[in-house]
From TrEMBL:
Residues 41-288 form the G-protein coupled receptors family 1 profile domain. Coiled coil: none annotated. Gene3D superfamilies: Rhodopsin 7-helix transmembrane proteins (1.20.1070.10). GO terms for cellular component: plasma membrane. The keyword Transmembrane helix applies. It comes from Puma concolor (Mountain lion). SUPFAM superfamilies: Family A G protein-coupled receptor-like. InterPro entries: GPCR_Rhodpsn, GPCR_Rhodpsn_7TM, Olfact_rcpt. GO terms for molecular function: G protein-coupled receptor activity; olfactory receptor activity. This is Olfactory receptor.
Amino acid sequence: MALVNHSTIIEFLLLGVPEDHHTQALVFVLFLVVYLLTLSGNLLIILVIRTNSHLHTPMYFFLNHLSFLDLCYSSVTVPKMLENLLSEKKAISVEDCLTQAFFVLAFGGTELCLLAVMAYDRYAAICYPLLYGQMMSNELCVGLAWGSWGLAFLDAFINTLLAWNLDFCETQVISNFICEIPSLFPLSCSNSSDNFAVLLGSALLHACGTFILVFFSYARIVSTILSITSTSGRSKAFSTCSSHLTAVSLFYSSGFLRYLMPTSGSPWELVFSMQYSVVTPLANPLVYSLKNKEVKASLKNMLQKSLQHLR
């Protein structure tokens, strides 16, 4: 693909990090710890699911995909931010910026789809327990998982391809720590209205479509739970959904606001970007390990076996 459109500006400056050197050092240590915890937490979830045959169910099949996705998500954003915190010049080439923006949008879209699929899985398990095995067959689970990846990457490819054709010849400063498609529009000296319209349309279709599936799944789940007469039965049914509801709330709230709000350089853009690309990948393994009894039990057994081998 020709790069003549980007000949005027060859790099952007990511200035979403603090300018004070002492603050930068503290932020570097903080996000290095966050990144290492994110990697270890999600790898541990994947390992537990792979090694425990009792967790080879549709719910944990999707959780396995979600943990792998969070590994990828944080690895696209945090290492570059750590590099910029140590560098005097917080620069990223136009090509690398567009590549990062592509993966941020692709992984974000995949997470939206996976969370919606996981909501449907909980709906099938709670509302139709006797038919759950038929409704969530292995073939359907694989199709839903790879369909989530495929749709999100197609959406990201279309939006990034359009952004690649923009002319960047004005200010080169991005007031963020990562490159995102919306942040590129104010930097373009060509007409980006078509790009914005396509991004808005795809965001509404992608986000609202998945949100509707989540909403109606949980509307039916709540209705079913309320119809259960025993308190213990209600508590058990709700406990299987609480982890997923927490993950949905964390990701949807920040992702919706970031991509649907106009880019204006507001500090809130940085906050929302950080929440869905850094905080959520760290929070997901914590939420699913602390709130899920089966995962906690599997983690405990795995640690006990590890300690026995060490002795």
